[in-house]
Design goal:
The chain has 495 residues and is mostly beta strands. The chain contains 6 helices and 38 strands. Helix content is 13%, strand content 42%. It is elongated and about 110 Å long.
Length: 495
């Protein structure tokens, strides 16, 4: 210790002379870097620290001499300079293990150069500690809100989930971090919190990414002969390549599975009527819908082997009659009506993908929608499925529920927000500013399935908040909520 004190004394004496070391206002050929070590981590002893001071621009560095709570290093260059105003000196404190426990950067000022002394203090903060994460599971597409609890979290800390940086990380306190998960792959991964001083903590296999459940959007066709052998197409989302397809208790034959489409041959059935069509992913997640078996090809009303104009004429001639056993009662619901016409037209030429239908006047579309709602809640599932298929193919229903882009965009001061529904739902729209604050909530009310894309149908916003005040220019986000539908888009108000 006496030796270190002597060295410090001699260096100070040399600097006090100011002889042979001319100082310019912009550079120095001698510079002392010193400072105090403030240790807030009772698990670390200052005497175990290794202090390194470096000017990376000039590629010079020194080990600092530690005396109690203080450190010092002297940089000398008799033929040139060791530093200029604006250059950065970095002081790093490490343990013998190589773990960095503190790192501070200092930009040299004119005062530092004139005095030939730069004071840089180090603070050693406790290492962060992760205790828990909630929830511990989320979907692979990311954006799952999570909360990390623990200790010693500091402003500027980063959160890594697996190998990816978390989204919208917020340090709420030294004990809590909130964030959104990034996109990931199925499996359990580590969680790491790193403070700005480089000190970190990890929790092994703390978060598990799970596969999104499969969903079914359409099934074409919706019925097949009990003899089997017909190929059907299932569209949807999140189908696994190893998924299994079930028709009631029977397995689908030779399925070809893509992420958003399945083609499969219908197996033979011993029963007539509805069965449950099931797609099951390897992780056990499943989706179900109705599928119907019929004893004969029902759309061939006259039995000549072809669904043609003669079948349409037969149904039309019996239209409106309500008796058991009528030839035109294709869906066998006890009456010959629009649904029987749609059923025949949907399979005209025995090709499910070729859909030709009787003309439906615009003022009849809402009646069909109401009828579809009633059928889907009743025992007439086949009729409901056929009607929905026909209405979708002919543009009366969308293929999927979704929020559409507002128009005009950018706008001033008013805009219309269109949307479409595959099912009737209670609709509301919430408008947020860029800070996530609610600006306006519009309760649209209950709406039938359909397209709401014109100015008299779309949601209207006049650019005012819930208090009736005109909002400022900028970016806004709008979220449509319609039962299971929850979608958000961006719009711009320009004045």
């Amino acid at each position: 210790m006496k030796k270190k004190q002597l060295i410090f004394h001699i260096l100070g004496w040399i600097l006090s002379l100011g002889v042979g070391f001319p100082l310019l206002s912009y550079s120095a050929n001698v510079l002392v870097v010193k400072g105090e070590i403030q240790n807030q981590d009772n698990q670390i002893s200052i005497k175990d620290l290794q202090i390194t001071i470096a000017n990376k621009k000039r590629k010079i560095s020194q080990r600092g001499l530690v005396d109690g709570q203080f450190f010092q290093a002297t940089f000398l260059d008799f033929t040139g300079s060791v530093a200029e105003i604006g250059e950065t000196f970095e002081v790093n404190a490490k343990l013998a293990s190589g773990e960095s426990v503190s790192n501070v950067s200092h930009i040299l000022t004119e005062g530092d150069i004139i005095a030939a002394v730069a004071e840089i203090n180090l603070t050693i903060y406790p290492k962060p500690k992760i205790n828990d994460i909630a929830p511990a599971k989320g979907v692979t597409k990311g954006n799952t809100p999570i909360k990390i609890t623990g200790a010693n979290f500091r402003d500027g800390a980063s959160l890594i989930i697996g190998e990816n940086v978390a989204v919208a990380t917020t340090i709420n306190s030294e004990n809590e971090i909130t964030a959104l998960t990034p996109v990931g792959v199925v499996g359990s991964i580590d969680l790491t919190v790193t403070n700005s001083d480089g000190r970190s903590d990890s929790l092994s296999k703390a978060f598990t990414y799970i596969q999104l459940p499969p969903t079914i959007l359409t099934v074409t066709p919706l019925a097949a002969d009990i003899a089997g052998g017909e190929i059907i197409t299932i569209t949807g989302e999140n189908f696994d390549s190893q998924a299994t397809i079930q028709f009631g208790e029977e397995a689908g034959i030779e399925p070809v599975i893509e992420k958003e489409k399945v083609t499969v041959t219908v197996p033979k059935s011993n029963i007539v009527g509805d069965v449950t069509l099931i797609v099951i992913n390897p992780d056990g997640q499943r989706v179900e819908t109705n599928f119907s078996y019929v004893e004969v090809f029902p759309w061939d009303v006259n039995g000549n082997g072809t669904v043609d104009i003669f079948d349409l004429v037969t149904v039309a001639s019996e239209f409106g009659q309500t008796e058991v056993g009528l030839s035109g009662d294709v869906n066998r619901d006890g009456s010959v009506d629009i649904f029987d016409l749609v059923a025949v037209a949907s399979h005209f030429g025995e090709t499910a993908s070729t859909i030709s239908a009787p003309t439906i006047l615009s003022d009849q579309v809402d009646q069909l929608k109401l009828a579809l709602v009633q059928l889907e809640s009743s025992k007439h599932s086949l009729a409901a499925q056929l009607l929905r298929q026909w209405m979708t193919a002919n543009g009366h229903l969308p293929k999927e529920s979704q929020l559409l882009a507002n128009f005009p965009n950018p706008f001033n001061p008013e805009t219309w927000i269109p949307y479409q529904l595959t099912n009737s739902a209670s609709v509301s729209l919430i408008i947020y500013d860029v800070n996530g604050q609610v600006v306006r909530k519009i309760e649209v009310g209950h709406r039938l399935m359909g397209l709401y894309t014109t100015t008299d149908q779309a949601v209207y916003w006049d650019g005012r908040d819930d208090l009736g005040e005109i909002v400022t220019s900028g970016v806004y986000f709008y979220t449509l909520i319609a039962d299971d539908l929850y979608q958000t888009k961006k719009m711009i108000l320009l004045k």
